[in-house]
Amino acid sequence: MTRWFLASLYVDSIGKPPNPDSLAFCVAGSLARLDAAPFSDIDCFVILKDPSTAVRMKAVGKVFKKKLMATMSQDSALMVDPVGIDPVTLCDGPAEIRNLIVQRNMDQLIHPLLNAQVAFGNRELLAQLCDLLKKTASLDLKTQGLSDLKECFQDYRPLKLPGASGGRVGIDLKRDLARPLTFCLNGLAKYNGITVVGVRAQAHELMTAKLISTEVHLMIITCSEVLERIRVTSQLARLGHHGDTLGYNSEAEVPSELMKVVTQVNCLQHMAARYLEWLDSKTPVIFGNQSPFLSKSPAAYYAR
Predict the structure, then answer these.
(1) DSSP string, 146-202
(2) The pLDDT of residue 207
(3) 0.85 exceeded by the pTM?
(4) What one-character DSSP code corresponds to residue 135?
(5) In percent, how much of the chain has pLDDT > 90?
(6) Of all helices (H) and strands (E), which one includes residue 203?
(7) Structural domains in the chain plus CATH codes
(8) Fewer CB atoms inside 10 Å of the end CB: C or N, the chain?
(9) Residue closest to 158 by CA, chosen among 246, 248, 271, 253
């Protein structure tokens, strides 16, 4: 699903070629980072130069969503973003979108919007929105970073396989692995003032800034690449139908490559928990009074 296709479909939904200066059709999330999997959520929104056209253009957004759904097979898992980044919820002038986010306490949308890309139209409109969002009082990278680190560990508890119990093993690649990995890197990057997006780009910047060790960096890159390959293979094999959900009769049936990813994500989740403790107490944590992410033996943080 390309930016060009989505932009073309939106323009077609308007019914006549719009003035490119009048709006900005933007993509966010994995589409903006250029690392979307075949069946990733579609994060897109519209910024209008003239807010008085918002009602009409929201109707266009509904047409766009219907056209988009019509292009998908019944089994497809692809869907417009469920948390609010869509061309109906976010379709207004820069100031109006900023006010909506503040009034509805939708702070979780700020970071994705700041890293959005224009697929069609007036790039200046996105620049204006970003300027407004950066000035928003609730935007605090350190606070957001801490929130993401807590979510990495608390909302997505380290995956526990049943071990010797012999029970079935169910793994949701997105919920159990991809999201905790993303939250961990987002949190660590934002807390330390790094605003690039994408796990691998964040890992590179963190290593360059000497905030993670080369060993942790290598683990993150390897984990990210292998997980992406497993997800793409699974999604294509199932044509998107529950492509992120894998089931096995026992732990022994879980492929070694996938088991290694599970181990690495668990390791990062435990490191995130220890990092939060370290920030709070500034007392020695396992390897001395330093960030756990600087460890040269990251596997020591993995505890089954």
Answers:
(1) HHHHHIIIIISPPP---GGG---EEEEIIIIIIHHHHHHHHHHHHHTT----SHHHH
(2) 95
(3) no
(4) T
(5) 34
(6) helix 199-208
(7) 3-134 (3.30.460.10), 141-301 (1.20.120)
(8) C
(9) 271
